[in-house]
Amino acid sequence: MEFIKSTALLLMLLNPFLIIIYLIDVVQRMDRRQFTRVIFRAALIAMIVFWFFAILGDVVFISVVQAEFASFQIFGGIVFLLIGLQFVFRGPTAIEILRGDSKQLAGAIAMPLLIGPGTISASVIAGKKLAPLAACASVFLAVSISILIMISLKILHDFTLPKREALIQRYIEIAGRITALFVGTISIEMIMKGIRAWAEKF
């Protein structure tokens, strides 16, 4: 049961339906093989990071970085808030960092779209509730499901685009701005949680 809960939590925070909106410029200008290759590279980077935190937990922040996890929450919240604001005002062209060759794209997709305060927190929680091997398996399953959904959405996009291009573009514009409002709200919540965690220490 804990395995299913941990996997579902990480999958929900990865949210492939939201990420595909952020990657719409990549979806439109890459063929299926290129897109799949980039997504797999990004997923591999994210998976290694999640495994690292699932095994070591918040010890990484306390012992290695010598900083509170609250600091990470605040910084991560600010990063996502900036992305959300740009998406609200500029639409799908906001994330210009995702433009470039495949090697650059893989890292840009992995961070900050896949790797963030929420997904890292979920990895830490999985590591606390499950045995190390089970936690790593949970992370692998969640990330795998997420990238399979994104690749399926890419295939669906390519299949329907020639017939419904104007409708798809309109949907992307509206859905992108609405989801950006959601991301902005979650970002503020992350920042506030970090601030509250810091305030409790005084």
Question: What attributes characterize this protein structure?
Answer:
202 residues
Chain-wise SSE layout:
Elements: H1 2-14, H2 16-22, H3 24-29, H4 32-56, H5 59-65, H6 69-90, H7 102-114, H8 117-129, H9 132-199
What does this molecule look like?
It is a single chain. The chain is mainly alpha-helical. It has one domain (2-199). The protein is 86% helix and 0% strand. It has helices at 2-14, 16-22, 24-29, 32-56, 59-65, 69-90, 102-114, 117-129, 132-199. α1 crosses α9 (132-199) and α4 crosses α7. The radius of gyration is 17 Å and the shape is globular. It starts with a helix and ends with a helix.
Q: TL;DR of this structure?
A:
This protein has 202 residues and is mainly α.
